[in-house]
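INTERNAL AUDIT FORM
Audit reference: QA-55
Scope: verify that the stored structure record matches its stored sequence.
Auditor: D.O.
Record contents follow.
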Amino acid sequence: MKKVVQQLLLFSLLAISMASCVNTKKLSQEAIYFQKVTDSSLRNTLVNYESVIQKGDILGIKVMTANESSARIFNQQTMSVATAANAASGGADGSSGYLVDNEGNISFPLVGKVHVAGSTSSGVTDSLTNLIKPFVTDAIVSLRLLNFKITVLGEVLKPGSMAIPSERVTILDAIGLAGDLTVFGRRDNIKVIREVNGRREMGVLDIKNGDIFNSPYYYLRQNDIVYVEMNNRKMGNADQTNVRTFSIILASITALALIVSTINNL
């Protein structure tokens, strides 16, 4: 009986060791970002990005001029929208802007319809400056996209939608705002879902690779959805949990058997 108990105890210890054993080297290797990034790949990266205006966007346009009455005419914005800070905090106060309609136009005072979809912010600013010159010669036009937000889902610490106060945000910014990837998130298969000209398209990013910086999906656009896929380790984690539970039960039974055997030998 004593020999059987000893064998059972040894078997339990081995089972617990096998269940708790994790390949830490592989785990650490999979979690490292930019494994294939070199100095040369970074130097050859072109940093050239400006957001493109889309249908449904809300533009905050401000005209500044020495003539106060003229400025008031051009600053009659029609669409109310929460600012980035208030949207993030759930507040109701916001700013007014111009809604880009389904044809890609905005209705601007005295000028009428102006096509803006597909243009950059600087391009629209230049166009508006030229269009209002017959009315105001010294005008300075500024434009800001008021509805810039992205959504991050999947294996991140804080998934959800987030308003972006700046019009320039990268995939790395988005991951940082979402609290970083979990240990179960795939670094080599991050999907970006984007709407372009009324159609959805998807790009795949590998943040282990230096080519990420040249990807058209490195800089995110308004309303992009970022999805971080789970790796195989998470799916196998449930099985590991079951094995650990079985090992604990087995160890408990072994300990109980050892106690009973000790009592019987007294």
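Auditor finding: record pair retrieved intact. The first strand starts at residue 58 and ends at 64.
Action required: none
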